[in-house]
Each structure stands twice: as structure tokens, then as C-alpha cells.
Amino acid sequence: MDRLQTITLALLQGITEFLPISSAAHLILASELTDWPDQGLTFDIAAHLGSLAAVFAYYRRDCAAFTVSAWRGLRHRRSDAQLDLLLKIAVATLPLALCGLALRDLVAGGLRDGWVIATATVTFALALWWANSQRGARDLLGWRDALLIGLAQALAIIPGVSRSGITISAALLLGLSRPAAARVAFLLAIPAIGGAALMAWIDLPPDAQGAQLPDLALGAVIAGLSAYACIHFFIALIERIGLMPYVYYRLVLGAALFMLLSRIAH
């Protein structure tokens, strides 16, 4: 990997992981528009860990409160609002984990087809448009909300859907406010990204050749910093600008993918 590839792929990972625009669609564009070598699983793991560190850092108060509440719950059998939210996040994570394990080979194979990614990019742009029209006012996540958002998040095993996009859309359609929907989506990113990094590490062959340590460190730092900035500005602006800019972007991106794939096919 050269330095330009390292920086570009790390930025793509950091930014697209949290914006509702699909990281898979951007990565296929990067691979098709350049002659870069495959970055390897080790780089993917490093970039994911950088993004994970960013969401931990941004929600450090929540994560600290979760830890304290979980300890109190185990020690004193006492529940509070933070423990309640932590359990709801666990419930919402379960469908994605089960689908990811059950459909592991399909996700790694057939679903990574460019036509699937392009179709999902456009289709779920329309879902995002529908969700943007909702004006929910609730800030509290209910148990039914957690289950339904979790079922929607399971669709993110299809490349091009966007995990953050589908969870924000589901939360808005269930009546949550835009800031609350974004917060839920980003908290759900913690187990989702951690699980993806763990699965990639498990799949890593003992003799795997990957990026060198300086590239891994640089990729993790860039992915982490860009992800942190992305979370901050997305939450600050979502109430003001809504989701329509991302809808338009996804439609343009989907059209570009279809044109690129058609050109390759011919």
C-alpha cells in the first residue's frame, strides 16, 4: 500500500461508517477506479478499531455510565435508566449478530456483488427519504423500538444498505426524534463494529500478509479522527438539515455505480 491508498481508505472507513451513505458502495468505487492492491484484512481491522475508538470517545460518558450501571445491577440487583438502555442495545444487536453468523458465507460471497450494492444504495435511499418525512418527538427508546430497530439493522448485512442509515430510518419511522435516532444508531455501532472487527480477526489466516505496522497505525488514527468528526457534525446538523442531502447523494452514487458496472460488463 502506498500512502495515498492508506489515507483514502482510512478516510472512507471513518466517514462512511457513520454517515447513512454506505461504506461498501464507496469501497467498490475506490477499488474499480484505481489499480490499488487489496488492502488486506489486517488493514480493515485497524480501520474498524479506529472507528470503534472514535464512537467510544464521543460517547465516553454513556459508556462509563453503562459500566457503572451494569456493575450495580450485577452486584445489587438494581436497575436504572442506563442499564435499561444498555439491555435494549443488546436486544437490538442480537438480530444482526445472528444473521451475520448464519449468513456468513453469503455475506462474504454473493452479497458483495456490485449490482447488489448499487441496487441497495438506491433502494435504501428511498427508505431514508421516507424516514426523513417523519417528525417524531420521542427521545426514549422502548423495548418494542429496540427489537424493531434491531431487525432493521440486520438488513445491513447487505452491502450498500448502510447500517447507520437503516437504523436511523427505523428509529425515525418509530417516532423517535432525529437526535435520539442518531444517538441510538451510533450507540448500536459499538457492538456492530466490534463484532465486525472480531469476525475479521477470526477469519485472518495465520500466515496472512497485510499492511505494515506504520500503515496500520496511520489507517487507525485517520479512521478514528475522521469518524469522530463525522459523528460530531452529523449530530449537530441533523435537526437543521435533515437527511435529504444524504438521499440525493445516495441516488447519485447509485447511478454512478450502475454506469460503472454497465461499462465494465460491456
Description:
This protein is mainly α and 266 residues long. The longest helix has 29 residues, at 213-241. The chain has twelve helices and no strands. It has helices at residues 3-16, 23-33, 41-58, 60-76, 81-102, 104-108, 114-132, 143-153, 163-173, 178-203, 213-241, 244-265. Helix 2 packs parallel to helix 12, helix 3 packs antiparallel against helix 10 and helix 8 (143-153) runs antiparallel to helix 9 (163-173). It has one domain (3-265).
Question: Keywords for this structure?
Answer:
266 residues; mainly alpha; 12 helices
Give the secondary structure arrangement, pairings included.
Elements: H1 3-16, H2 23-33, H3 41-58, H4 60-76, H5 81-102, H6 104-108, H7 114-132, H8 143-153, H9 163-173, H10 178-203, H11 213-241, H12 244-265
Helix pairs in contact: 1-2, 1-3, 1-11, 2-12, 3-10, 3-11, 4-5, 5-8, 5-10, 7-9, 7-12, 8-9, 9-10, 10-11
Class by helix and strand content? mainly alpha
Rg over CA atoms: 18 Å
Shape: globular
Global mean pLDDT: 88
Distance between the termini: 30 Å
Give the SSE string. HHHHHHHHHHHH
Strand content: under 5%
Number of strands: 0
For the biggest sheet, the summary is: none
Quaternary organisation: single chain
Summarize the structure.
This protein is mainly α. The protein contains twelve helices and no strands. The radius of gyration is 18 Å and the shape is globular.
